[in-house]
Amino acid sequence: MTTHPRGTAHLQADMTQTMQRYWDATAESYAHHEHFNSNDPQRRAWALLLARMFPAAEPKTILDVGCGSGFVALTLAELGHQVVGLDISPEMLRVCRAAADARDLTNLTLVLGEAERPPPDIGPVDAVISRHVLWTLPWPEQAVTAWTALTRPAGRVVAIDSLWSPQLISDTNGADYPPEVTRFLPLLHARDLNPARNVWRRAGLENVLAERLAWIDEVLRTQSPSDAAMMYRDLTFYFVEGTRPVTPGPDTRRK
Ligand SMILES: C[S@@+](CC[C@H](N)C(=O)[O-])C[C@H]1O[C@@H](n2cnc3c(N)ncnc32)[C@H](O)[C@@H]1O
After folding, report:
1. Full-model pTM
2. Residues lining ligand 1, judged by CB closer than 6 Å?
């Protein structure tokens, strides 16, 4: 993995612009891939995971960072949560809005913005989630620190992501990004869960837990169309989560 010095503002702006262009251009086909029919086993597996993480019986306010065409945000909104979706790509947000409108969902708000600098007035939320976004963040610690700041004390910050095989990285450059972008993405090059775990700890989160999602791997590898199944053999899914510490209030005990 290539390490980098603390990025300058212009480097960060360039990277964001490159990625925004990439995701804008990809939005329609990404949505097509993600919004496949509701009986699709992959879709059912992801929906089950999300319902276990955020049960409908306990409605929350949840920020979905890098919501894209909205699979996670829409699923959580359908479970009854109050959801804010944030993304750098106006095209992704347009596609997500259309899907929310088609389902008459009024509990989903969409915001154009950066994972590393989410607008502060989004918070406080009960939880932050991102799926398939960590790998594409040049400065994941900056982003997760910002997500933590938006979360209520004892609230959760959760990400679902994947470890990529070196072969897949070299075949795809991450996501057809220019190589100079790909080499800057620390979690794209992670070989195990420790880098993500450390990002969570350094962002000040407690009770940090990172685990592989072997059952998701199994569904995606065995029940996807053959071209996707081949790609999934090179991805190992995991989640990482932690809670925002509860800052002790003023000491009210009698002296
Ligand atoms: C692989 S897609 C995942 C979309 C969605 N989370 C899902 O699970 O289907 C990555 C998304 O992250 C967004 N993204 C990438 N970098 C971002 C950043 N710095 N800030 C906000 N969104 C970002 C992209 O525009 C894209 O929509």
Report:
1. 0.93
2. 16, 19, 23, 34, 66-68, 71-72, 87-89, 92, 114-116, 131-133, 136-137
